[in-house]
TrEMBL record:
The chain crosses the membrane at residues 61-80. SUPFAM superfamilies: TPR-like. It comes from Anaeromyxobacter oryzae. InterPro entries: TPR-like_helical_dom_sf (IPR011990). Keywords: Membrane, Transmembrane, Transmembrane helix. This is Tetratricopeptide repeat protein.
Length: 696
């Protein structure tokens, strides 16, 4: 027997050395015996604890395993939770306003990026609104700067977007680029996608659309303005946009809306200015002048009010008042080039003072105008130098104008005239085509006739000149000039038909239609026609009476009374029974301030042709000049029986009624202005009638 260690409990006992490692101690053997006799489902007995000295290493291993297991379980739980948690939403893309602000920062327009600041946005918005309401050019630039800062502080706020777009629209001008306009449209469109019913945003969109007033833009602007007004009916900005949106279609309604808004929000001076413009567009010159006057009472140098005043006074033929308004405007704004330009236009087209016109145009250019206004000024310089006989200077002026703005309408008109004089058919067609209808229907027809005359055989070009005469049936200047062109084409019969039609109405209608314009051809066509009609009379004695009468009418309209008298006497000698030469001689006497000499000539003309409108009109003018007003009224009535729409007679009858205090005078003048807006003395008479009443 030898000492043996039990493999189960590690106890040492006396045992068989040959079975060492397999024998167990008596205690473990007895416990094993008892387990074999227990039921199978019984739980196994817990073995006795191992002695401490033998259990130390196993505990450390077990503890490490447990720790690792806990770490693994914890990691699994954490990873599982992360797997179940939804992924964070991606950051929203920048709005159009944020992208624009980013570009401003990148290009140095704004300082480096700053955090959104609603309080700062509110302050800048208040500044921008106050600057806009001041209705002054310098303050408009301030408004744009404040609104830009507000947008930078809160680019996702609808009110910040609306303020910036409105301020931008208020400063859109000739120098605004297409990229700038497109960016503004992107900003307001993006903001409206998030806030589709926001009134100020819709108003801002309206203003932006009206900044480039195409037919489609105006239609969209009206729709946006209606929705804006429904959303914010008391907001001054919204009401301003709503009035401006309909001003072109219904200026009367626009004026009412803007006047009501101005009464509700007197601090917003833009409403008064816009109401004045709308009243003028509606044909109420007196109300427009009154509103412009109230605006000038607030700001005596307000450019818009002075410009409107000058425009109304010019359209009414009140030249001195127009010059005074333009002089005030030029003095109030030393950088504005338009006042001296308009003074130049009055100087050469009304006063015939080419030298004064050139001085005014030089002053206008010295003020550093933008390209579009500079091109317009240079076009007038071309007209003045062409009238003075300096063709080279006129060509230089046109070339400079077209270099600045190739499509400038006034410059293209002058370019076409110069090209025709140079017999350059291609250049005439080019400029006429670029101009299109922008110069009005008469200018378009005349340039088309010039192009046809250079490009076609005479028989094909003649209809174009007949169309030009038909485009201005109440303007003897155009008709007689067209007759001269027909004579250039050797179409004498057609030329005499055109001149006869002009003399049948009353050639003095031309005098009440020729106000200042940017499309001035000057006296050359009429002077050329006078020479050609006189040449025809010498070449064909059988046509002398009619040809000399036409020549006399040309000279009369040019203000050449001596030449007109000589030619009219020649016509009378060729046809003693003709009414036109007698009427022309009577008008020459009236132009010289000799109504007593005019009356018998006019009476003889009426006796020769009682139904002749020209004869009756000049007879009435002679009677009026002599103070025989009732007789004059009847004579004008006879002229109107012959030609019911004769502007000279309608104007005179209305004026006589006004002198008598007849309430029918005002509606008669208003109807004449409405039906024949080119008759500027009717506007003047209406202003004289309405002005005192408005003032009271």
């Amino acid at each position: 027997m030898a000492p043996v260690t039990c493999p189960l409990c590690f106890a040492v006992f006396e045992g068989d050395a040959a079975r060492a490692g397999a024998a167990v101690c008596p205690g473990c053997a007895s416990r094993a015996q008892r387990r074999t006799h227990r039921p199978a489902a019984a739980a196994p007995a817990v073995p006795p604890r191992a002695p401490a000295r033998a259990a130390g290493p196993s505990r450390r291993v077990l503890a490490a395993a447990v720790a690792l297991a806990l770490v693994a379980v914890t990691a699994g739980v954490v990873l599982g939770r992360r797997a179940l948690r939804p992924a964070p939403a991606p950051a929203p893309p920048p709005s159009a306003a944020e992208a624009l602000v980013g570009r401003w920062r990148a290009t140095g327009v704004l300082p480096p990026a700053a955090s959104p600041d609603d309080a700062d946005a509110d302050r800048q918005l208040a500044n921008a609104r106050a600057a806009l309401a001041a209705d002054l050019p310098a303050r408009a630039e301030d408004a744009l700067r404040y609104a830009r800062l507000a947008l930078a502080a809160a680019p996702r706020r609808a009110d910040a977007v609306a303020a910036w777009v409105s301020a931008f629209a208020a400063t859109v001008g000739d120098d605004t680029t297409g990229a700038e306009l497109a960016a503004a449209h992107d900003v307001v469109r993006d903001a409206l996608a998030r806030s589709p019913g926001d009134g100020p945003l819709l108003a801002a969109s309206t203003r932006l659309l009206l900044a480039v007033p195409s037919a489609a833009n105006v239609a969209q602007a009206e729709d946006a303005a209606r929705r804006a007004l429904a959303a914010a009916p008391r907001d001054p900005e919204v009401r301003l946009a709503a009035g401006l949106a309909i001003a072109g279609r219904d200026p009367e309604a626009a004026a009412r809306e803007l006047e009501a808004a101005a009464a509700d929000a007197p601090a917003d001076r833009r409403l008064i200015s816009a109401a004045a413009r709308a009243r003028w567009a509606a044909g109420d010159a007196a109300a427009a002048l009154a509103l412009a006057g109230s605006r000038l009472a607030q700001d005596p140098g307000h450019a818009g009010a002075l410009a409107l005043t000058a425009e109304i006074e010019t359209a009414a033929g009140r030249w001195d008042a127009a010059r005074a308004a333009l002089a005030r405007w030029a003095a109030a704004d030393g950088a504005a080039a338009e006042p001296p330009l308009l003074l130049a236009r009055l100087a050469y087209q009304v006063d015939g003072d080419l030298a004064a016109a050139r001085r005014h145009l030089d002053a206008a250019l010295a003020r550093g105008p933008g390209d579009f206004l500079a091109a317009r000024i240079l076009a007038h310089r071309a007209a003045v130098t062409r009238a003075a006989g300096d063709r080279a200077a006129a060509v230089d002026a046109v070339e400079m104008a077209l270099k600045r703005v190739p499509g400038s309408a006034p410059a293209r008109f002058q370019a076409a005239l110069l090209a025709f004089e140079a017999a350059d058919a291609a250049a005439t067609r080019e400029s006429a085509g670029v101009l299109g209808a922008r110069g009005g229907p008469v200018a378009r027809a005349v340039l088309a006739a010039y192009a046809a005359e250079l490009s076609m055989p005479a028989e094909d070009a003649a209809p174009a000149w007949l169309a030009a005469a038909a485009a201005a049936p109440r303007d003897a200047t155009v008709a007689l000039s067209a007759g001269g062109a027909l004579l250039r084409l050797r179409m004498a019969a057609a030329a005499l038909r055109v001149s006869a039609a002009a003399l049948a109405r009353d050639p003095l209608e031309a005098r009440v239609r020729h106000g200042p314009t940017d499309f001035w051809e000057g006296p050359a066509p009429l002077a050329d026609a006078a020479r050609r009609y006189a040449d025809l009379a010498r070449a064909e004695p059988g046509r002398a009476a009619d040809a000399l009468a036409a020549a006399a009418a040309c000279e009369l309209l040019l203000g050449h009374t001596q030449a007109a008298e000589r030619l009219a006497r020649g016509a009378l000698a060729a046809s003693p029974q003709a009414a036109a030469p007698l009427a022309l001689l009577a008008q020459v006497a009236l132009d010289r301030g000799q109504p007593r000499a005019a009356l018998p000539l006019a009476r003889a003309a009426v006796q020769g042709r009682p139904e002749d409108a020209f004869a009756n009109a000049v007879h009435a003018r002679a009677l009026e000049a002599l103070g025989r007003l009732d007789d004059a009224d009847r004579a004008y009535g006879a002229a109107l029986e012959a030609v019911p729409d004769l502007a000279t007679a309608r104007l005179a009858v209305a004026r006589l009624a006004a002198d008598r205090g007849d309430p029918a005078a005002r509606p008669a003048l208003a109807a004449l202005v409405r039906e024949d807006p080119a008759v500027w003395p009717a506007r003047g008479a209406l202003l004289e009638l309405d002005g005192p009443a408005r003032a009271r």
